[in-house]
Design goal:
Mean pLDDT: 83
Shape: flat
Oligomer: single chain
Number of strands: 6
Helix content: under 10%
Radius of gyration: 13 Å
Low-confidence stretches: 1-9
Distance between the termini: 16 Å
Order of helices and strands: EEEEHEE
Number of helices: 1
Strand content: 35-45%
């Protein structure tokens, strides 16, 4: 994935778009640990939370403490 920022996780938002597929993006939140690869404790699809959701596939990534650390968007 290519960075739209400096590539360092320093308390800022970082949007990465896949180099292989421009329809895939990942938003690292300031709470993201910044290690690569980062193992998430839990991933939840937005469609599973909102049954009648009719938008792009969105996956919410949580760390072991239950804190939202990233959002994957598949258009």
């Amino acid at each position: 994935m290519s960075d739209s920022s400096s590539g360092k996780s320093s308390g800022t938002f970082e949007l990465r778009v896949s180099e292989d597929d421009a329809d895939v993006a990942y938003l690292r939140l300031p709470s993201h640990p910044g290690t690569s690869p980062c193992k998430m404790s839990k991933s939840v699809r937005l469609h599973d939370l909102i049954g009648d959701y009719d938008g792009p596939d969105v996956v919410l990534d949580f760390d072991i403490r239950g804190i939202l650390v990233g959002i994957e968007i598949l258009a």
